[in-house]
Specification:
Blueprint (H helix, E strand, L loop, with lengths): L1 E5 L7 H16 L1 E6 L1 H4 L8 E5 L7 H5 L3 H8 L3 E4 L12 E4 L4 H4 L6 H17 E6 L2 H10 L6 E3 L6 H4 L12 E3 L9 H13 L6 E3 L3 H7 L1 H8 L6 E3 L5 H10 L2 E4 L9 H7 L3 E5 L2 H6 L6 E3 L4 H11 L14 H15 L2
Parallel strand pairs: 1-2, 1-4, 2-3, 4-5, 5-6, 6-7, 8-9, 8-11, 9-10, 11-12, 12-13
Length: 350
Amino acid sequence: MKLAVDCRMLGTGGIGTYIAELIPLFLEKYTCLLIGRGEDIAAYADNPHAELCPCAVGVFSLRELSAFPRTVSRRINECSAYYTPYCNIPSGIRVPVFSTIHDVVFLDVPGLASKTGTAVRKWFYKRAVRKSRAVFTVSKFSAGRITSLLKCRKPVVVTYSAVPSWLQNDTSGTVQKDGSILFVGNIKKHKGLHVLLPAFRSALDKGLAAQLVITGNADNFRTGDDSILHDIEKMPEGFVRFTGKVSDTELKHLYEKASLLVQPSLYEGFGLPPLEAMTLGTNALISDIPVFREIYAQYPVTFFKNGDSSDLALKLLSCAAMPSPRNIPRLYSFRHTFELISAGIDFYRA
């Protein structure tokens, strides 16, 4: 069987990491037509199961929807099936399509986009459902929201997500903790930074001696959310630090040095940072949203009441000096994710 795999999102954050982890596993089982930017797919040129198909057409572009290169679509249609790690599907594909929709946060959380932006995203979600033989997603929670909000009558297969290989490699467990509290995310409303900041200030007033480290650039906060910037400016000097843009290696080091990761999300499709933190010996304090209750039910995390800064402040004080987590379950892996996707493709392709 030959599988066409859309690799055009390689190098673009979470979904780029997701497809990068799956490609080597696809190549173990299938002959794969890898569609993507030449520089991104060149790494697989020597793999005997890989056929490279350079394509620089942007995802979610007008050209992708209406004028996708015929040379590329012809090669795709010579395959047995087509897989995309997101909800973007080019025009002209006639073979069975399979897609992964990680979440429908823009439909579930008001205000993340304009009305027009939300409508456009919903159109892409529904188009992916319509064109796919089966839809994959990363949690039972997301499966339920996809089924409900998109009126999806296609099979929705839960495959979960996992910690990427770059983060697991060479973990010695000997990095000295620096007492910091780490936030990995962005300023979008559903990430909950507006819940964490007053909680952190309250904990400082009650004796917490820690620095809050926020991955990202302070300038983004200036242009994105003035209220969050105002809350940060009210903090005692030196207690909040922005990292700026970080590499994978730098992010791994931040995880290892932190004493606690805080994930105050109001909404996630899966939510990887707590799993990544625990993998590197750092405790996780997370909101008790349904998806976290699902994903982390068997993990040594600490939950706080979703959206409750007072409860979060108390938990910050009690968790800051906890010993590193032990006996971390190995429930999720990209090998397992691949096996579920592969089984779904094989079953629903006919």
